């Protein structure tokens, strides 16, 4: 079988992966070069969250309109939906390598457009280009890595794509922080994104096509040359034989190695079960709220009571660092613990973390500082008009002040203690400076609170639990769970489902927060996470250590497997016995 017979996969896979550094660096070259697609994905996710704070300062129309903020974030996701959908077909038609090259070109063009955008409209156009590239790369990178990896360490190597996604997010926060004082601020933040795309473009020109794609297209000799570079001599012939049998079985069943039929796809039991698990995981990955946390983490930090953009970015950097650390944990445990157990542990922690966040934000909003008429009258002629004309001004607190909209108003804290009653004033840069000159804090998006650190702990716990499981495993499963003839198409369907879910969450989060509050929003994510946990227990199979060709056989005969703690790789065991 692919990668040979492994009797100690769970204890040695990580060490085996590390040993490749000196024993077979070629495999790592393939994995990390393709994994830069994950870096692009992560960088774009993270960079816009910090850049948005400064885009709002530069373009007042964006600051005033929530719909423009959501569009700047979500138009990249809309582009990614198209990129992933088209990318699935392109992967099967033109190969994994060419799709990555096209994705890099689109991303680079988008980065240039964004960095030079004179207004919100062109910025959104650049975001769409970037989205097209990210959508293609998001499903192609793990697919390329999976098809060029030995079974024993496939999970760990595909996890490097997840690590580079989170590494890209961490890098984006570092870049955001580095350019907070630079002229052009956000333009540098989004413009730097073009460099990883250019780097991957150059590297992919020097690397071969996926050996499995080549074999399926009838280029057996080219595929064998690459496979001999990937596998040890005592394993490669068996691997080639398994691949040959798999393709011949497909051709016999379909009548032609090129024939692809959607109806046939859905009628195939292994594909149908694979799509149920794969698409379900991708949808739940978004609906448990991860990209809300990553896209809007600086804003969430401000909602927790930390007023300055720079402080929000610095604390978000810690969150991104934890996300990257979780991906390293995934690399270690994915082939040791298994996909399914990791998902269940991950989702259990996510449910608890979202419960903590919901409770913290409930306390923050119900114990927010009041507006003081004495503090407000201290500033002459800049009192919030809605506050001045309100009949119940004595009942106004921070939240009521920030919801005033004719014009927008801000909260200037007490100079002695930010938790004491403060002033409700017109929101503009002049008033903000006046507030700061008196050593007061100025709030337009968050609330002074003694619970701020608890919100950060809740966010940190969420990332620590999410990243090793729900962060990495859905992409790993979708790179290995489908038969070869449908792998690009099915991977594209699953990635498209991921990006559509991403778009729904990104487009609705701020509006949902304004309508029902941050606390209830996180509570909804928590309920969805419970549903995700039940889905994983019932529908998701364990693929740890199974050769790609063997996973199809397992899905053909698989019943629902509730007892996830029991070892159940029976098809693999059977194949070893024979």
TrEMBL record:
Pfam families: Sugar_tr
Transmembrane segments: 30-55, 67-87, 99-118, 124-145, 157-179, 185-207, 274-297, 312-335, 342-361, 451-477, 489-510, 522-540
UniProt keyword terms in alphabetical order: Membrane, Symport, Transmembrane, Transmembrane helix, Transport
PROSITE patterns: MFS, SUGAR_TRANSPORT_2
Compartment(s) of residence: Membrane
Domain Major facilitator superfamily (MFS) profile: 30-544
InterPro entries reported in the protein's UniProt record: MFS_dom, MFS_sugar_transport-like, MFS_trans_sf, Myo-inositol_Transporter, Sugar/inositol_transpt, Sugar_transporter_CS
Any one GO molecular function term: myo-inositol:proton symporter activity
Keyword Manganese: no
Topology relative to the membrane: Multi-pass membrane protein
Gene3D superfamilies: MFS general substrate transporter like domains
One of the record's GO cellular component terms: plasma membrane
Superkingdom: Eukaryota
Similarity section: Belongs to the major facilitator superfamily. Sugar transporter (TC 2.A.1.1) family.
NCBIfam families: SP
UniProt-recorded name of the protein: Major facilitator superfamily (MFS) profile domain-containing protein
Organism of this sequence: Gossypium darwinii (Darwin's cotton)
